[in-house]
Amino acid sequence: MSERIVIGRAELFTADVDRALERERRLAQRDLPEPPPLPRWRRILLSSTFYLPVAGALACFGAWLVVEPFFDDFSIVGGEVVLVNTDPFDVDVPGAVALTVGALEVVVLPETPMEPGADGQPPFAGIPEITAGTVIEVAGTTIGPQRMVALGVRPATREAAAAAGQEVDPEVTAAHLLLFPVTAVALALAMLGAEGIASRHWLRLAERTVVGVLLTLVFTFVAYVPGGVSIAVAQWFALPDTAIYDVDVFSPLRFLIFAAGRSAAWAWLGAALGLGMTLYKGTPIQRRNAITGGALGGALGGVFFDPIDRFFTGASAFSGGDPSRLVGLVAVGVSVGVFIALVDRLAREAWILVRTGPLAGKSFVLYRNPTVIGSAPQADVYLFKDTEIEPRHLAIHRTGNAYEVEDLGTRAGTQVGGVTVRQRRLRSGDRIVVGSTALDFEERLQRPHDREGSTS
User: Fold this and answer.
1) DSSP-assigned states of every residue in 243-307
2) N or C: which end of the chain has fewer CB within 10 A?
3) Mean pLDDT on 389-398
4) Higher-scoring residue by pLDDT: 94, 307
């Protein structure tokens, strides 16, 4: 015989019991209180137009910190000039000379900048001032075995010239090859991580981040091909009759062409990033939006590299391009985040805004058909910490140009406009209540209707 459970009067008439009964009464009468207005700061923090650009900027700053120490933009050599050849046979540029510095041949063009020495020496007045016996330092790029074109020349002491040495670095280094993939991986980690944290979907965060980063890495290396072609074409148009690659001496038209080529290369990186992040378990619409936003953001951010060198830093070939890379990379991160969020926002057809609970203020675009909402991590919209929500509680279907909500046979039920429904067509502005969580349904280009007039 089972034991009798006796509930005393003191246990029955308590504040906790009263609150539970009041809550049950409200649920039975569909009389849930109006959710309080969402604080503006919360909506901003949970908006992808805020957290994706922030994540992008931090990611690219981190990528710059990783890659920058390995960058040597130009080879810097030094020594005594042994021979001055004023008529180099294979340099078809009037006024160019070839300087023999130790075992190196250095081609100096009329537009090559003459810079002050590192120890305060005044710059050379021009190429004729450089004669046999002059000790110089040269910053430049390789154009052949033991041969380079000068991007900057300055007087030097013998000690400084000896310290510089005469080793010419390769034109393409490991840092150049790693810049794209390191940046793309950092962006993928940051943006997928930010999206997972905003939705508190930790399981999906880990899964999508691991696979998304690997796919992004693959597509980034693929993007090297069209990106390299873009830069090569821009160089061909911008540099038809000179070997000097310094943006300080480009004409305005050549500068624009060169900057456009770099912008196009970063657009390819942004597109590869968008594809890599959304190929795994992303819908075609998500992929389209991410690729478009990534390409637009990469193109805009890529524009910043060369203008920083030309107009703001007064860049010297001896100092390198680290300021322009820092500004350019951060601009790429911010721009990619902004455009991915904006394209996604402008292209969305319908979404739900969470009004109560831990995710209050977060919007979820209805990409999938159907979109399943529930308390299971596998749900498309994961609503946790609400014990009345079942693992698969409801689904929102798109039927033609309309949306319908369907309760998936739950005990607590699903309410729309205060009425329990099994299946019902949704209109913009409808409030869906599951458990103690309120969700507002919205459609693009639709005016919210009066909730008082809704029918089941």
Assistant:
1) ----GGGS-HHHHHHHHHHHHHHHHHHHHHHHHHHHTTT--HHHHHHHHHHHHHHHHHHHTTHHH
2) N
3) 95
4) 94
Query: In the numeric block, which tokens belong to residue 142?
Result: 């390789």
Question: Hey, what are 2's tokens?
Answer: 């089972």
Q: Is 312 helix (H, G, I), strand (E, B) or coil?
A: helix
Q: Report the alpha-carbon distance of residue 315 to residue 297 in Å, rounded.
A: 26
| Neighbour count for residue 373 (Cβ, 10 Å) | 27
Q: Collapsing DSSP states into helix, strand and coil, what is residue 46?
A: coil
C-alpha to C-alpha distance for 415 and 62, rounded to whole angstroms: 47
Burial environment of residue 409 by CB neighbours within 10 A (0 to 12, 13 to 18, 19 or more)? exposed
CB-based contacts of 21: which residues, under 8 Å, 6+ apart?
none
Question: Taking 90 as the threshold, does the pLDDT of residue 213 lie above it?
Answer: yes
Tell me: pLDDT of 208 over 60: yes
Q: Whats the size of the chain, residue-wise?
A: 456
- Of 90, 129, 269, 289, residue with least CA distance to 185: 269
Backbone angles phi, psi at 206, to 5 degrees: -65, -45
Q: Give the Cα separation of 263 and 197 in Å (integer).
A: 31
Whole-angstrom distance, CA of residue 412 vs CA of residue 398: 24
User: 0.85 exceeded by the pTM?
Assistant: no
What span, in angstroms and rounded, lies between the C-alpha atoms of 304 and 250? 16
Tell me which of 103-107, 127-131, 232-236, 315-319 is least confident.
315-319
pLDDT reported for residue 237: 79
Instruction: Check residue 324 and report its DSSP letter.
Output: H
- Given a cut of 70, whether residue 113 has pLDDT beyond it is yes
Please report, to the nearest 10 degrees, the dihedral formed by the alpha carbons of residues 409, 413, 418, 419 taken in order: 40
User: Which of 232-236, 242-246, 314-318 has the weakest average pLDDT?
Assistant: 242-246
CA distance 314 to 306: 11
End-to-end CA gap in the chain: 48
How many Cβ atoms from other residues are within 10 Å of residue 251's Cβ?
9
Inter-helix orientation angle 202-238/252-278, to 10°: 160
